[in-house]
Here is the input.
Amino acid sequence: MSDFIKLADLLLPNIDKEPEFYENKYPRRDLKDGARVTRVAPSPTGYLHLGTLFVSLVNRLVADSTGGIFFTRIEDTDKKREVEGGIADIIGGIKRFGIAIDEGYIESDVESGSYGPYKQSERAEIYQCYAKSLIKQGLAYPCFCTEEDLAKAREKQEAQKIRTGYHGEWAKHRDITYEEAKALIDEGKPFVVRLRSPGNEENKVIFEDGIKGKIEMPENDEDFVILKSDGIPTYHFAHAVDDHLMGTTHVIRGDEWISSTPKHLQLFKLLGFKAPKYVHVSPIMKLDNGAKRKISKRKDPEAAVHFFAEQGYPTESVIEYLMTIAASDFEDWRRTNPTADYKTFKFNIKKMSSSGALFDTDKLNDVSKTVISKMSSDEVILRLFDWSKEFDKEFYDILSADKDYAKAVFSIDRDVPKPRKDIIKWSDAKQYSEYLFDSLFVPNFQLPEKINKADAVTILSEYKKVYDETQDNQAWFETIKSICPAANFATDTKEYKANPEKYAGSPGDASTLIRIAITGRTNTPDLCSIMKLLGRERAIKRIDAAIAYYKAN
Ligand code: GLU
Here is the structure.
């Protein structure tokens, strides 16, 4: 028996399967020509991040554009950093945003598909089998260096201005013999398994990235760790084994992985696997003191997808916005297809920007306003109930007290050919509608410039006399004109503009006085609809309160 085989049995005695076992267990996928298999592989070390949502969307689009498959895999090899509820938040979030998952974790606790388990912590034997095979071929070996040994080596390298890392003559255990390893294991010394890299820093590795084009980097010559001392793989090794066995054709991931790609290509080669196509997505950026930086979980609230739910951005708005980042031709398409499902847009990965897009709140808000304006009032009220139930209990209770009334409030200027674009997110809805609910209404008696209190009292008192809630807009404005002379307001706007010094105000000023008295605002949706909704009694009460205020102050 060769020393390598003896070494492999010594290091991984419990592994009795050969890679062929898994190659047969997970046969190659039977796909139509050109179908792409993509995946998102989140680590549950936190909650759903905007970047993960974005990468999931891109993966889904690429699979869809070719009739392929998009699956999820949970990369939970770092148990120390795992957060409780992380998987549920990430998988649940991806689905909530309408990104369908074909395979893998389709729910936080449901796996589907023939290539599982789809959670790395349940695949330890598979990785160990492939690692054992590399050891048998002399392509991997045990390393017994402690953290201190490695730190010392690093210090020396730094002092000598040598590239740090476990490579070349610095790869201390690269030529360890079976006997040496056995003696250390008998002493109970822990070890990791490292790749015996055949690479040379002087050589170039070239690959064609799906977004960034041709990338040229030095070959990997580092004997990097493939199995940690607890037998759990590093990301690099798990990536190669999993994406091979799971039949991933396109690895679409964050571009922070570009620097590791030479390692990955080397692994695929040494393991005898066909390498996938790599597609590195640029991160979403923020401007920070004039400098662009990657959006950060620590610094930016919008980095956590939960922020959008809390603020009450519809999931469609966030996706629609992310589409504008994903595809430079999406906005043009949207203009010509204003109501089409974004999923019918022909996505082309080549149109993705190779530098990071700036997160643009104004644009998101703009997109979201349009998305909400296109919703029916039924939809709006349904969403608003859902959102407020979770995030604004006070408002939820107010809305629930009279559901028909609440629905009527959010029907104003909606369900019409040109709906009003006013609500950006559900958390705006309260402020937007507060004057329509007595418990939220805050009177405001600020007069338009030039209009005095006495005239305001006259106009409002006259208006009370002719108040008619059944009037339409046009009839209403005629009524306003008819009361203007009582306070020496012009009855004609043009006439007022021509002779401003002659009049105390215009019909526009009179209507503003009335609007402020009834709603507390100078700008609202259609006042006639508002008055109908409030009903005579409430409207008159508010007018009376305004009259009393102007008289007293
Ligand atoms: N678990 C890795 C991450 O969260 C996955 C990267 C990949 O898609 O391969 O960054």
Summary: The CA atoms of residues 186 and 262 lie 35 Å apart.
